[in-house]
Amino acid sequence: MKLIDSLPEIRGQYREHANLAKTNWFGVGGEAEVLFRPEDSADLCHFLANKPKSVPVTVIGVGSNLLIRDGGIDGVVIRLGRGFTGMQVQGNLVHAGAGALDYNLAIFCKDHAIAGLEFFSGIPGTVGGALAMNAGAYGGDTASILISAEAIDEMGQLHELSAVDIGFIYRGNTIPDGWIFTKAIFKGEHSNIDSIAHKINLIATKREATQPIRTKTTGSTFANPQGMSAWELIDKAGCRGLTIGDATVSEKHCNFLINQGNATAKDLEDLGEEVRRRVFEASGVMLEWEVKRIGKY
Length: 297
Fold this sequence. Notes:
This protein is α+β, with helices and mostly antiparallel strands and 297 residues long. Helices cover 27% and strands 26% of the residues.
């Protein structure tokens, strides 16, 4: 029996053998056995509560911090779509669905004269990814402005979580594996639209000048070790411009890997591992991947 025939009826959409290279910024990766786009939170809860317990589930956003391996992903890959992108303002509180783009959230807040979320304009990805990774940049981070979030556990139960409940750590959190964020409430402050727009423009200018944003890349490849900068360690190890296949270390910012057009996921992962090896050899520091690597080789 095919996997799709064992799955519960849903209001969203199933698709077999979905090409995952189209779902991530590197533009690489194999197929999803089944791709599921839930209609809304209730649909997702229903799916998780009624699917066979043995069926593995993988959640992806827009793939801005993801390396999907060439062998693809078994089981069901869940991608949150339009039913999870809503945003609204209540006083100085901003409600956002987990599927909303971080950049769109920053612009939405600017348009409503809410300050404090400008840093999201410089973070690729979605609100759900920001919650999962405690994303931060340009002097702000997710944990510092979060009031609460909703997440669905592996059994389909909905939970409301405070920032303390989530247990944010550097580029991560401590909630159980397999929980799926669906929405968040952030606290901003009322301000002037022009001053907010100015901050967003400064971030855009800095990103353009320092990061290879017009290439097939992701966010930073490696997490910064305590008190150090990953890019400096990579540069000192002589890895700037290092290439394997069609994957290369960015000349502009060497904590970014780039698919020059025809790289495979293996090229990119092998390149990252070679960078880690050379940095360790040069400095004694073993870099940790910030890009999440998933799927089969």
